Amino acid sequence: MRKTLALLFLAVLIIGCGPKMAKQETLDALAEARAALEAAQARLADLEAEKEMLETQRAELDHMMTELQEEIDMLQTKIDTRCMK
Q1: Domain ranges, residue 42
Q2: What's the domain count of the chain?
Q3: How close are the terminal C-alpha atoms of the chain, in Å?
Q4: Tens-place pLDDT, residues 26-44
Q5: How far apart are CA 4 and CA 43, in angstroms?
Q6: 9 in a domain, yes or no?
Q7: pTM value?
């Protein structure tokens, strides 16, 4: 009786705590989530590269604006000195 009860308890324990198979719906949802994650990571990498490019372009344009402003100031000074004569 004890052996039977012990075997029954062991069988229930093994069956109840054993590995469980995931449902196909769960696996599909997981695969979809992984695909979405990979797509989001790729998009993030693209956007970071674009941001870097735009920041470089902005720095170049700022430098060009500074040079043009200096040229404007120089030309304005020439105009002012020639008109005062």
Answers
A1: 22-83
A2: 1
A3: 125
A4: 889 999 999 999 999 999 9
A5: 61
A6: no
A7: 0.58
